[in-house]
Design goal:
CATH topology: Methane Monooxygenase Hydroxylase, Chain G, domain 1
Order of helices and strands: HHH
Number of helices: 3
Protein name: Small ribosomal subunit protein bS20
Structural class: mainly alpha
Oligomer: single chain
Strand content: under 5%
CATH class: Mainly Alpha
GO molecular function, one term: small ribosomal subunit rRNA binding
Pfam families: Ribosomal_S20p
Keywords: Ribonucleoprotein, Ribosomal protein, RNA-binding, rRNA-binding
InterPro entries: Ribosomal_bS20, Ribosomal_bS20_sf
Amino acid sequence: MANSPQSKKRARQAVRRTDVNKARRSRIRTYLRKVEEAIASGDQAAAKAALQAAQPELMRGVTKGVVHKNTASRKVSRLAARVKALG
């Protein structure tokens, strides 16, 4: 358990940051799910639009430290290839 004032404050901050990061990660997953659903429906235009909406959200997660840069790039790359293959 936290004893010093600094460690108590750090514990409080960690709880707050966890909530923020959890919400951000959930938001990213929602955007990715929309792309997956559009790909599954076979509609390339919808999939392309969903990918264009998801890409900045993923990269924002990178700048906020929720997702690693290479992970985000890999996800975007693989989704883009699948969207392109629909055509």
